[in-house]
Design goal:
about 230 residues; alpha/beta; Rossmann fold; 6-stranded mixed beta sheet; 4-stranded antiparallel beta sheet; 10 strands; about 35% helix; globular
Length: about 230
């Protein structure tokens, strides 16, 4: 699975959160990093259909994703998590997963176990933050995911919890054959997980390629880490 983004532009009045992005994400685990306001979540919102670009193209294995409504993209296999949790607090973990399965028309069998979530009948409000993140990931994997967009899944977690969640995320491409794109401020986690990484700043692409090379790029270190070139 490959995701191709070409000359993508978004305008919010006079603001240009995406200003002509051209980028390809190939199979496996790909990182998407940049400072706050760089355009990362806006890009996810375009890919999932919540923001309409003024111009550009987005395709995956020959499918023009911009022609699909958000619910059709989800059923096609484009899934995502959000910075704000989407679980229903009063429902159990299992019921939250069944709700996602009903909406997406796919199977949820075995997903709680794959994501390492015990206590399926507990209401979501009784789950720890790490357990809720596991549940959010399980919801995104219902059915047959092709592209999984993860928006800061480790935010608020301890280093140990982040590494636990990373172990599950790492297994997704092999088990599901899905492309995973990860927005994450923890550069160490990106370096650990992602084969390739793209960097945005002020709505433009700063660098893209193998993660180690990108993170060593002086322009990236200046934009993201505040270092002087």
């Amino acid at each position: 699975m490959a995701l191709l983004i070409e000359e993508l532009k978004v305008r919010f009045g006079g603001v240009r959160p995406l200003d002509g992005i051209t980028l390809a994400f190939d199979a496996g685990l790909c990182g998407l990093i940049g400072p706050n306001g760089a355009g990362k979540t806006t890009l996810f919102n375009v890919l999932s259909g919540f923001v309409r670009p003024v111009s550009g193209r987005v395709s995956a294995d020959g499918t023009d994703l911009l022609r699909l409504a958000p619910h059709r993209r989800a059923r096609w296999g484009l899934r995502r998590t959000f910075q704000q949790e989407q679980v229903v607090a009063e429902l159990s973990a299992a019921a939250n997963l069944r709700l996602a399965a009903d909406h997406l028309g796919g199977s949820a069998d075995g997903l709680l176990g794959f994501c390492g979530l015990d206590g399926a009948e507990r209401p979501a409000f009784q789950l720890t933050l790490l357990e809720r993140r596991r549940l959010e990931l399980a919801r995104a994997l219902v059915g047959t995911p092709r592209i999984v967009l993860l928006d800061e899944p480790a935010a608020g977690l301890s280093d140990a919890e982040s590494r636990e969640l990373a172990g599950v995320v790492r297994a997704v491409p092999e088990k599901f054959g899905a492309l995973v794109v990860l927005i994450e401020h923890d550069v160490g986690l990106v370096a650990e997980l992602c084969e390739t990484t793209a960097v945005l700043d002020f709505g433009r692409l700063v660098a893209a390629g193998p993660t180690a090379r990108v993170l060593a790029d002086p322009a990236v270190r200046a934009a993201y880490l505040g270092e002087q070139p």
